[in-house]
Amino acid sequence: MPLTRLPLNPSYDEACDICDHWQLNDWQPLLDIIIDRHNITVSQVSQNFEGTNPVFELTLNSEQSEEQAYIVKVLAPNWHSQFQSEYHSLKLLNGQDLGIAVPKLLYSGEVDNWYYLIIEKLEGVMLSSVMATLALENKLEIAHALGQFSARLHRLDVAGIPEIKLDWPEFVRLQRKHCYAKRKKQQVPTALLERLTSYLEQHISRLDTFLKSEEMHLIHTDLHPGNLLVAARGGHYRLVGIFDFGDALVCPDPLFEFASPALLFAQGEPGIFNAFLDGYGYREERNNGLQQHMMVLSQLRHTGDLNYLLHHVPHCADETRWQALESKFFPL
């Protein structure tokens, strides 16, 4: 018998409606079960409305723990793969020194076929909330630190998390097969859509370098300002935390990591993306071939909306050719 009024097997639309519209009172029975199950003494529960999935903050009684608060992330059965990605990533990262904090995984479980993760709350504010106030110099420092973090992440031994390892050649094949239909559904402009297949055919070979490589990397895939935490120190904001590993995966192509910082952090500013590459220690040529490689990966990406990027990255909304977008999406 269900313990809450959450549906055991919601449709996609039903799950979206619940996640988008349920208020704290609706979620309280689930949270009470989770809190009781893990013997957490809580003084306050609040709801965070900034994420795609339902997220809650549990303020702890100070005598119970050194941590001031825990974060509870709830995932519908429809997004079990996101639970798997975050659970296995954070389990691997617990105790690792990446130079930048990532949340410690404390507890996890399932109630009525809905999954949850309990993680520590990190210090800092989202970079997206202060980005507009930062000088370019400060953005370069953050980008460099993000590149260093990515390099450390990619050097980890991922043999212990086969659950989120992609069959990379098969992934590329299937994403290429369904790319046109997916981007059409996202309402990518007709002029670009008509050139999509030919662009892929012309540049898909850029992926050959890593296509059958046996060296695997944990890729966060979503290192954008909304998932980066910064704190003011010495008159500058410093990168202090990185969260949301819900789209993380294991694959052989490290460049799959580069797209989000280029598109959503650099936003057309070459200095920012080059600072990220410097921090990463990227030693290959920074040329149009790199831009084409990342463009193909972005077109094939299993998550994300290309139409959103066209309107979010400066000076891209009116472009009709993928070649013209290469330097704007991935500024070098």
What is shown here, in short?
With 332 residues, the protein is of the alpha+beta class. It has helices at residues 12-21, 24-37, 80-93, 127-130, 136-154, 168-185, 190-203, 208-211, 259-266, 270-280, 288-300, 306-312, 322-329; strands at 42-48, 55-60, 69-75, 105-111, 114-120, 125-126, 217-219, 228-233, 236-242, 249-251. Strands 1-2-3-5-4 form a five-stranded antiparallel β-sheet, sandwiched between helices.
Tell me the layout of helices and strands.
Layout (H helix, E strand, L loop, with lengths): L11 H10 L2 H14 L4 E7 L6 E6 L8 E7 L4 H14 L11 E7 L2 E7 L4 E2 H4 L5 H19 L13 H18 L4 H14 L4 H4 L5 E3 L8 E6 L2 E7 L6 E3 L7 H8 L3 H11 L7 H13 L5 H7 L9 H8 L3
Antiparallel strand pairs: 1-2, 2-3, 3-5, 4-5, 6-8, 7-10, 8-9
Helix pairs in contact: 5-10, 6-7, 7-11, 9-10, 11-13
What is the name of the CATH architecture of the largest domain?
Answer: Alpha-Beta Complex
Give the low-pLDDT segments. Answer: none
State the assembly state of the protein chains.
single chain
Q: How many distinct helices?
A: 13
Characterize the overall form: globular
**Which sequence of SSEs, written as H and E, runs from N to C?**
HHEEEHEEEHHHHHEEEEHHHHH
Indicate the proportion of strand residues: 15-25%
The number of distinct structural domains comes to 2
Please give the largest β-sheet: 5 strands, antiparallel
CATH level-four homologous superfamily name of the largest domain: Aminoglycoside phosphotransferase (APH), C-terminal lobe
Number of strands: 10
Rg calc = 21 Å
Could you give the order of strands across the largest sheet? 1-2-3-5-4
CATH class of the largest domain: Alpha Beta
Mean pLDDT: 95
- The percent range for helix content is 40-55%
For the termini, the CA-CA separation is 57 Å
Structural class: alpha+beta
